[in-house]
Structures are given as C-alpha cells and as structure tokens.
Write a structure and sequence with these properties.
Blueprint lengths: L1 E4 L2 E4 L3 E3 L15 H18 L2 H6 L1 H6 L3 H10 L12 H21 L2 H11 L12
Antiparallel strand pairs: 1-2, 2-3
Helix pairs in contact: 4-5
C-alpha cells in the first residue's frame, strides 16, 4: 500500500521517499494520515523488535534469508561499526559493509551460538575495516 502526504510518498514497510517523479506514481489514497500514522508506528515496532539480539538469534533462519536494516545495524554495532553508509552516504558502501557484517555473523547465526557471537564481537570490536566509497 502507498499513501501520498505533503509531496512525498510513503511506502509501507520502506519509509518516506521524495525522489520519484510524480508522473510515474499512481495515487492510491490522498492524505491518509491515520493509515500513515499506523504504518509508521508498525515500522517503529518492527525496528525495535528486529534490532534486538535475542530476536535476531531466535529468528536466525529468517535473518539469514533477509536481514532487516535494524538487524544489520545491531550486529554492526556489536563490532563497533556505527555507520554502515560511510562518510559519503553511498549505497554501495552500505551494501559492502552490511554484507561483511552478515558474513561475519553467519556462522554464529547458523549455529545459534549467541555466546560465541558476543565473544567474537567483543574480541573484534573496532577492528573490522569498513568500506567508504565516493561515487561521482
């Protein structure tokens, strides 16, 4: 579902964007403030839930198939990585850093070894290099 509000587009589960040309959009509902508020509340709840290490390890199969941004950010923070986007905010930097975090976490997620992840993350905190590409 989509809703337009104040010259932006809100895509349920994805957030607000404003870079779509208006001519390429189909308006489904205009000024859907109540629905927009519900979607945002649900997104905040999902972000909080999927950003918890207990949830991440309890749902490791789902995480390995498609980790949410909240999940990747939490795992990155365990390693001392606070900015997956790099100084230039490039998507390719985010992708490279997220992929690296997930590759490091994968064996612990597959085995459900939360204690092993905590130990690995603590031993490598601040030591994992991150990508920072500048495109353009």
């Amino acid at each position: 579902m989509h809703a337009c509000l104040k010259n932006c587009l809100y895509i349920e589960g994805r957030g607000e964007v404003s870079w779509y040309p208006a001519s390429t959009l189909a308006l489904i509902r205009h000024n859907a403030d109540d629905e927009l508020a519900r979607w945002k509340r649900e997104a905040e709840e999902r972000h909080a839930r999927e950003g918890g290490l207990d949830w991440i390890f309890a749902n490791s199969e789902q995480v390995l198939k498609a980790a949410s941004g909240s999940t990747v950010a939490t795992l990155a923070e365990c390693l001392g990585i606070s900015n997956l986007w790099g100084a230039h905010g490039e998507g390719i930097s985010y992708y490279a850093n997220a992929l690296q975090v997930m590759m490091l976490a994968e064996p612990y997620l597959r085995s459900g070894d939360r204690a092993g992840w905590d130990e690995f993350a603590a031993a490598n905190r601040g030591k994992v290099p991150t990508a920072d590409y500048a495109i353009g």
